[in-house]
Design a protein that fits this description.
The structure is a single chain. The protein is built from eleven helices and six strands. It is an alpha/beta fold and 280 residues long. The strands form two sheets. It has a four-stranded mixed sheet. Strands 5-6 form a two-stranded parallel ribbon. Strand 5, helix 11 and strand 6 form a beta-alpha-beta unit.
Length: 280
């Protein structure tokens, strides 16, 4: 809700009708990236009667290419009259809905008192705020286009270090042996955990493919359905690499390895102290 002083200052500009102010009430919808703005606009259009937009379309820019001022999406809407009811005075009021990304919203909050509503007129502060916005806009574009840029064949982005290459191999093995429904949304984290576990057992991450194939062959050609992918890997390490797994669990300063109750360790393991085992 616009404060009385802010309302008065806006009316005094002479640019608005004091009886028909678009942003007397305003709110902000914050979305992850620029790609999500269309979804947010569609949702707002389903809930309210949208009567205006700034800029008019997504292809219209309100600023010069060398300007980095406030130019986020603003929708002007009214409450929708429920079916079967007559319009009430509240349905004639327009309000503003700003649609911003996380980075745009962060910029607005950080610079609001610095340049927008301030007692101090400073070219330097305005310059810094514009520089920050330019940097964030470049970051927005990079985030939205990250997938395309990474696969564009650009020599700078096509490179891989050994750790990334091995992690890609782990992800590939997981995707070949488990369905999308069996894998978590954050497959990268699962792959990192499995890679760390294999390395703790003095096994190369590339061994995962062989491990899964051997374990699957021992079980009539299918992986256990009652275990998570990590649980399956751990079970196969117990079966096929017990000495290496035991050595990893006995290592005092090694990475912790989760041992769930669904995966039973051999009796030979239990006669040792296993400081790297985290039992649940």
């Amino acid at each position: 809700m616009k404060k009385p002083e802010s309302y008065a200052l806006k009316v005094e500009t002479g640019r608005v009708d004091p009886r028909d102010l678009d942003d007397f009430f305003a709110c902000t919808v914050v979305v992850p990236t620029l790609d999500s703005c269309d979804t947010a606009e569609a949702l707002i259009a389903r809930l309210f009667d949208v009567v205006g937009r700034k800029p008019e379309t997504a292809l219209v820019a309100l600023s010069q290419p060398f300007d980095f001022q406030f130019d986020h999406i603003r929708l002007y809407a009214r409450l929708r009259v429920p079916s079967g009811l007559d319009p009430a005075p509240v349905h004639r009021l327009r309000f503003e809905v700003q649609v911003k990304t996380f980075l745009q919203h962060a910029w607005s909050i950080a610079t609001h008192d610095l340049t927008y509503k301030t007692n101090d007129v400073s070219w330097g502060k305005e310059r810094v705020a514009a520089q920050v916005k330019a940097s964030l806009e470049a970051a927005e574009v990079s985030i939205v286009e990250a997938e395309r840029l990474a696969t564009s064949g650009n020599k700078l982005l096509a490179r891989q270090d050994s750790a990334t290459a091995s992690l890609v191999g782990v992800v590939g093995s997981l995707q070949r042996h488990f369905t999308a429904a069996q894998l978590p949304e954050d497959t990268k984290r699962l792959a990192l955990t499995i890679k760390t576990t294999l390395e703790a057992c003095s096994l190369e991450p590339g061994y995962l493919e062989k491990l899964l194939n051997l374990g699957k062959a021992k079980r009539m050609g299918s992986h256990p359905a009652d275990l998570s992918p990590f649980g399956v890997v751990l079970l196969y390490l117990v079966d096929l690499q017990p000495a290496k797994l035991k050595a990893a669990l006995r290592r005092a300063k090694g990475p912790k390895i989760l041992i769930s109750r669904e995966v039973a360790l051999p009796a030979s393991f239990l006669s040792y102290d296993l400081p790297s085992a985290r039992h649940i």
